Request: fold
Amino acid sequence: MLSITAVALRLGLNVVKGRFRCIFPERHAHGDRTPSVSINEEKGFFKCFVCDNVKGDVVSLVQLVLGKTRQETAKWLNSDTPSIVRDSQKFFLKKRTKGEDKPKFFKEKMIFDFLKLLSPIQPYSATGWWLAGRGIYKPTWDKMLLRCIDDYSLVSRKLLEKYSLDDLQIGGLFNSYGKLRYGRRPLIIPYIDEKNRPFYFQARAIDKDIKPKELNFQGTIPFPFNKAALDGEHGIVYLCEGAIDALTLLERGFNAVGIPGVNTFKPEWVSLFKNKKVILCLDNDEAGRAGEARISALLKGAGLETRSFRLLPEGEDINSWFVE
Ligand SMILES: [Zn+2]
Reply:
């Protein structure tokens, strides 16, 4: 739950773009001038490309760098270090030290309860107009169970009737100031499974001046947006960056799924794409192209056929292209 990058920085490692120099530079050519140890922030792991034994989780990292025992390491990690603990995690740690672990489906249940408090998108509402302006219409809003936060204070109050503030902060719906997150991002896009059960969501601003335009629920991304498209039948699926692009294609009758960001595609999702020919529609920019190569390699490794959707002009995404 600690950010492994933050811990690495606290250990004095010079982390640049998710990499740092190996702590055994003598094993590397040129003293590992080009850093060989990569960090997987999402999984909380690090790994050196050269040294077999330089890998592991946050605890192993501290042990390796400081030469501490596992117990000493736990103490070191739990000591009050606000500089490395994100606000949301402070509460988590506080709770954990009390030994009050949350039930297994705590977050899932909270997402269910949150979404139940929200209203479907209304035609002629600001959110409805925004979606229609992007060529995404009501049958698609309804099918994908899109929701809108109409009244932040009402939703906050209802949540606080059901959950303690501590729990809402641990669950990730509330920030450390005790406020519902996703302010001014009223369009809520749930990630539903094939039985229409939500397990994750993104909150989207409809005001173009709000940055960042999307906020993700803080938690594991369980599967791509529109999991129902991955039904195991033979066919084509378009893989887009972001739910809005996937919605754009769905509206036009294409079978599409979305991932919240180009780097969020997980190797364990490959099996979900069974029997699909995957058309990769990531943004045509540097990050998109790099991500596309990585995802394509993962899918091809599982024997799946992939194609790149090369129609997109440089700098455009699916939605902007279709709307034009
Ligand atoms: Zn090494």
In short: Residues 39 and 87 are 21 Å apart (CA to CA).
